[in-house]
């Protein structure tokens, strides 16, 4: 009998996995709460185009994307920024979010995926210790496998039984609240850096960017704390003082959204269940990019499902997906969560010193850009590390913070390396505890 797969939520990784599995002959239905044609946001996203090929998609039409400009990173008071010099073959593309969705959905429908719009997923249906379906606003639906692509606050993941030991909630420091608006161009003044990323501006723990486009200026404010529209407006006004190009009229966007910026879930699978994309916290911690990782994960998940010849879709057979994800991506992402925790502890003057002293160089920043590629792994040069250590030693307080961060990164790397390669309930749960504890 044809095996049924449900994808809860039309997340990027979920719809890409749906296409790969429908092509293999599975009956796949996606349940999405929004109306057809209203998905995404009124803005552009940046992601590695190779991820489309990995997920079995063609490149979008040429008029639908452009290559991203190099970013330049600034501390709260640094005058000279650190600019990336990303090689051409590693350049990410910039594309309207709605066009990304159109591209993914068109492909999935051609592969035979059914999409049920305006259907809100309320939670999982559990029988024994297995996920056997979903409760929705349009009734209960059963399947042999539920793929959870409902995003960070997924009602499927959050309502799983405690016995699965899958983390449910996201702490305040594990998500960044973004306000993003595109302002009219108020002056023709040349800018020093077209894509400026700024850390801890105004002493506030967070990341902001100002991207100067031909027609407008794209302002993004990201913070690890709650704030409101009045505060977003005050902060934009502050940015305007040094960036007169930012006009006062919002031409696009003007919305608040949360992005997860934490380590990947410790356990991605259970009997009848697999999480992907933001519901599994696959974004790059600190910067929050998650499209490429979700697309790459879709291939790993589809491979594990297809390899399960008896269609058990148990935690044991789906564990291959988790092993593959951590081997290729997760074990690189997880230590970056420690870097994010460090950022939360740094003082503005320490960030300035790190940038001004040369402790972080343009090469480091460029390597960071490579972290979204499947083969991209940061390679550290020991001589370079010694030079950096000498600079850090001049500031004992900063040294203490960096040593603590380095130690926790070491623990996380070791934990990832210890992940069981084969499913064994007790061993996996013991391992997950160690992995989670290494971020404390
Ligand atoms: C402001 C902003 C800018 C970003 N910029 C970038 C970028 O430039 N590059 C990049 O790589 N990433 C970026 N990201 C992150 C990126 O959007 C996500 O990591 C990526 O989309 C993967 O998330 P997802 O598709 O799994 O989940 P989501 O994007 O959250 O999608 C979940 C889907 O499930 C649906 N859904 C949710 N709940 C329910 C429910 N109860 N029932 C039914 N359906 C439901 C939602 O409507 C949505 O369609 C950005 C995010 C934000 C918020």
Describe this structure in words.
There is one protein chain. Helices cover 37% and strands 23% of the residues. The protein has 12 helices and 19 strands. The chain has helices at 12-23, 50-54, 97-110, 155-158, 229-242, 291-307, 315-345, 348-356, 362-369, 382-393, 396-417, 425-437, and strands spanning 4-8, 27-31, 44-47, 65-67, 72-74, 82-83, 93-96, 114-116, 121-127, 130-136, 139-142, 145-148, 175-185, 195-199, 206-212, 216-223, 246-260, 269-270, 273-275. The strands form 4 sheets. The protein has a 7-stranded mixed sheet, with helices on both faces. A 6-stranded mixed sheet has the order 8-2-1-12-19-18. The chain has a 3-stranded antiparallel sheet with strand order 3-7-4. Helix 1 (12-23) packs parallel to helix 3, helix 1 packs parallel to helix 6 (291-307) and helix 6 runs antiparallel to helix 7. Mean pLDDT is 92; it is low at 372-379. The structure holds flavin-adenine dinucleotide. Residues 9-13, 31-34, 39, 45-47, 120-121, 149-151, 155, 178, 180, 257, 259, 277-279, 283, 288-292, 294 line the site of flavin-adenine dinucleotide (FAD).
